[in-house]
Known about the structure:
Layout: H1 4-7, H2 20-23, H3 25-36, E1 41-45, E2 54-60, E3 63-69, E4 75-79, E5 94-95, E6 100-101, E7 108-109, E8 115-117, E9 141-142, E10 144-147, E11 150-153, H4 162-165, H5 167-172, E12 188-193, H6 197-205, H7 210-213, H8 215-220, E13 226-231, E14 235-240, H9 262-265, E15 269-274, E16 278-282, E17 286-296, E18 299-308, H10 319-346, H11 363-376
Antiparallel strand pairs: 1-11, 2-3, 2-5, 3-4, 4-9, 6-7, 7-8, 10-11, 12-18, 13-14, 14-15, 15-16, 16-17, 17-18
Helix pairs in contact: 6-11
Bound molecules: FE2/S2 (inorganic) cluster and fe (ii) ion (FE2).
Amino acid sequence: MTLLNEVSQPIETANGLPNPLYTDPAVYAEESRRLLLGNWSGIAFEGDVPEAGDVYPVELAGIPLIVVRGRDAQVRVFENVCRHRGMVLVQEPGKARQGMRCPYHSWTYDLNGRLVATPLVGGPDANHHPCIDKPELGLLEVPSHTYLGVVYANVSGNAAPFEERHSKLMKRWQEFNQPLFFDGSASEFTLDVACNWKLAVENYCEAYHLPWIHPDLNSYSRIEDHYNIVEPGAYSGQGTTVFNPTRSEDGRMLDTFTDLREAWWNGQAEYIVLYPNVLAGVHRDHIFAMLLLPQGVDHTIERVGIFYASERAASEDFADLRTVNARQWRLVFDEDIQVVEGMQRGRKAPHFDGGRFSPAMDAATHCFHAWVADSLGEADILR
Ligand code: FES
Ligand SMILES: [Fe+2]
């Protein structure tokens, strides 16, 4: 078995991560704890909770969470568990203007997570009991942060602040730190893939596969138009110097973000994985994010959301262009399914050593593998 420390060797000689990280449920459990719960992971889109009182339940590696938009417009994340007997509190996305009421015994929490009602807790005639101290029994809040349309959560509570962890990317993409506009379900889709979540990261990082897996995309944004993006320990991906914005037959185009540098007008676009599980892409007229929501060692839900630069671009007048844009991205991500699922099947080959990297083309993938190996340390994880 390839040891994790071989992964961190220089790319010329390194092997990739070993098979158990893709196939062994016990390894997956430990890896999830360290990588997904121990870092800032993407769990939802801001557009899932557009208005005060909106609640959105989601699981991250089996941990039940709720995303809540408060009256102060702030997004908060809580563990989705009632402090009474541990029932999952919010079952479905929806409105909770009157607070979140547990379906079991009706304990009710406000949008800030405070416990506000405990009906009959003191017996058939009493809604209070001296042993049940409401201020002590609020929902358990999870540190959260929103960035470029995505709600991130750090379940362990031990990660460095988001702005610190991703300071370099926030600087690189500071021009895109602007209001984003959503149009609801039309710019969102979900894919269900039979692979380990890391394979989706690895495939997204690199442009090497373009000529064979995305021939249409490659016909205008060719492999030679791409460059690698590598920031050890934080993110990696690739960029292109050729991006054609969507244009309607009558020549209409989507509004662009304001005050962008010349490069973005010349057609630049960048595709970066914020470790561990958010695949983001920026273009002058839209941003997208794919959340990788692992369902087990070999099963991942991929949620894609697309965000626009102005209210006008997200309005009915431009619905046709947004539909085309979403369809194009869906096509690209559909084309990737065959390879990520194929790599998953390949990982059952018992003597596969994690593979090798092209020093020219796979720098971003190697950067991700090295981060995973480093995060797991000299772990007993493989024993
Ligand atoms: S478990 Fe929620 S009120 Fe009893
Ligand atoms: Fe791809």
